[in-house]
Amino acid sequence: YGHHNRLHFFTSGMDNQARRWMEIESELRQALERRELQLYYQPLLCARDGRIRSLEALARWHSPALGWVSPAEFVPVAEESGLIVAIGDWVLHTACAQARRWQDDGLPPVRVAVNVSAHQIATGALPERIREVLARTGLPAAQLEIELTESTMMADTEFTSAQVEAISRMGVSVALDDFGTGYSSLAYLSRFALNKVKIDRSFVHKLASDPKSTTIIAATVGLARGLGLQVVAEGVETEAQQRTLIAAGCDALQGYLFSPPVAAADLSRLSALFAPCEPYATPRTALAP
Ligand code: C2E
Ligand code: MG
Ligand code: MG
Ligand code: MG
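^ Those are the sequences you sent over. The predicted structure of the assembly is below.
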């Protein structure tokens, strides 16, 4: 077949990186229906008492053809191909159903945080999807959080802020992920209905070696406080980082020091550390009446 020959010629002329991208894309197309995706959950610890009040859901993919593929590699492919919309929908439903199940199993009501991509926002259907999933799973809105990145917020700001506002009005909390890695102006922070800022792990990583990251974290905490936002530090790996971040005023910490992301079944081992999540006040934004 001419078509196949052309494809073969095309792929053999491509560099390894492009070939890998294509392999991932073609395997990922079937990953959902073949049930190859799972969610792992990483606890966020309250800086005051060390208790777990929320968990971040993180996608894990084992492909029979490619083995384990990290989300750092497959999420960009999923985004460019549009597959992220279906995957993100599965993540949302699975995480909410799981949060409900833990509670039915006797854990205190924890909040589950789901990473949301710009494409999911762009569909315009996310608020309605969230409403449906909450109704279907019976998870209270206050126990769901969505995590957005700065680049998501920067794309079509008016539309995005209206979508985020609609989600926030349901009582779902909203976190800005990877704070400090994007291009957003600080002024943008107050335009979105945010509850939380997550300081990117690159700043936490540099704490010991680069005094500037201490300054950035202290300034972020100050700014966030002024805007009524919670502050989370990601990627906490050492006790020295933990001490610095608590002293800087972070509200919650997340990182390998406490726990890596783990399978849902493994969380019961941490059950003594759980405490009910605390409700956040609904944020006020420039759009709010
Ligand atoms: P993220 O949302 O910023 O998630 C935090 C990442 O940091 C996770 O990587 C987590 O495993 C890792 N991490 C946690 N603690 C530490 C630590 O102490 N040290 C270090 N070095 N890393 C730590 P992961 O699971 O590989 O995910 C990477 C990224 O992929 C996520 O970054 C998120 O942007 C994206 N992602 C993962 N799952 C989903 C998903 O379901 N939907 C979407 N849209 N994106 C996802
Ligand atoms: Mg995240
Ligand atoms: Mg992050
Ligand atoms: Mg990230």
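The mean pLDDT is 91. Residues 84-104 form the longest helix (21 residues).

Shout if you want it in another format.
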